[in-house]
Fold:
Amino acid sequence: MFCCDWAFSFVSFPKHSQRDEAKIIAHRGWHNGQDVLENTLEAFRLAVKNEIWGIEFDIRWTKDLIPVVHHDESLERIWKRPIKISETSFNDLRQEVPEIPTLEEVVEEFGGKIHFFIELKWEYYPSAQEQNSILLFILKNLSPGVDFHFLSLNPKVFEVFATLPNKYKYLVAMTNTKEMSEIALAQDFAGIMGHYLLLGPSVVSEHLRASQKLGTGYPRTKNLVDRELNRGIEYIFTNHPWELK
Structure:
């Protein structure tokens, strides 16, 4: 998508009056894929240190039902280990890669200091009711909608984690923007997220009329941030937060 950012660099958008207070979300934290890796405590500490408004991170479950912060179902891509999280006990996982934090550790260190967008994955939940209870227990001292929201690419996930109302949950569209938009509107979700090219004017206006909020990723320039803010976008997700500060 870099070519899209490049193309938009030739178009100047009016600077939004609230650009300096824009709600920038560090996608998987403030990381560079080298000395600071995604979804680690260090990546989240840097986001807090640099006064980023929010962080997005992902939840996976160990074999003994400990929610840990990790995007992929296996450790292969980031940690170069052929280990599947759902088939591994937490103690074994911690021994293999101590850098992978638990959700509880993230909440304990950063809860209330920075907004959480917690992505729940569409996967097998062996004990859905218990996992729902575990998740809410860990988040019990935080206020939904104020301190955190849930995200998912699949609305069926929220049938599993149904205790909290949909007004605290966002759907994330990929190429299925129309479908996800219709579900978000019909079922009173908080709103919808997606790539800035895929959330077109009609989608944006429809959700704004319904008093729902929108988030887009992943602009690389402040000029594009202005474009999104001028369109009424609430949240700006980025893999390069240092470029937008």
Summary: The chain has a mean pLDDT of 94. Strands lie at 23-27, 54-61, 67-69, 115-120, 148-152, 169-172, 191-195, 213-217, 235-238.
